[in-house]
Amino acid sequence: MHGPIGVFDSGYGGLTVFREIARTLPQYDYIYLGDNARAPYGIRSFEVIYRYTLECVEKLFEMGCPLVILACNTASAKALRSIQQRDLVTRYSPQHRVLGVIRPTAEVIGTYSKTRSVGILATPGTVISNSYPIEIEHFYPDITVRQQPCPLWVPLIENGELDGPGADYFVQKYLNQLLAQSENMDTIVLGCTHYPLMLPKIRQYTPEHVRLVEQGSIVANSLADYLQRHPWMDEQCSKNGSRTFFTSENDTAAADKVGLFYGQSVAVNHITL
Ligand code: DGL
Fold first, then answer.
1. How much is the pTM?
2. Of 174, 207, 216, 234, whose CB is crowded by the most CB atoms within 10 A?
């Protein structure tokens, strides 16, 4: 087996992670798949997110990807464990692997916080899953984790309201609700792939001493480390520097939207799942 690395998200938000992966590891071939036709995932049930994510992972396997990165917090929170522990074991060869974005973030977060009080901003689905507190506890039992769901941030970004007054209102609202949960929080994780687009606005309303953590470079460095530690997988990943983009939506404005998240406009192909 020899093929590209698959990168999956519910939509285009995962491009903020993919951008950093492609920058850190430019030599690999990549296929990006956004399930825009069924996004957002953040408000859906465990069962639905698992089913949708598995379908997309299978599609990427069919396209020849030996390794798939779930560049989506919600899918990582609600589907990754079942896929790794059930589907990969029973239905695929051991040469197939799926990785997420929550564990790499949890692994390093303890090196950022001095007060040992960390906040998570994420979709309702990610918050309800409790994945961040569970994963962080695993690596840093001395850290207290507080969470805040931000159900309106993804729709605001998706609808081009990043600079509107609604964004100011809801950024302040959710941030204040998070900060009110702990007096000494010094680190906040942007636990949704869309949120880096809101970073300037989030920064504006966050106390200066609080560090805001984006996941892109964390996930990219973790993948580089993974490929180094698993040379058999590295050998399976083809290296011609190609990038191909797919969306499940019939999206005429795809190139513009991709530009917003990826930093450059690229051709996007439609795919039926
Ligand atoms: N990409 C998702 C995440 O990182 C957010 C978008 C959605 O709700 O589908 O959680």
1. 0.95
2. 216
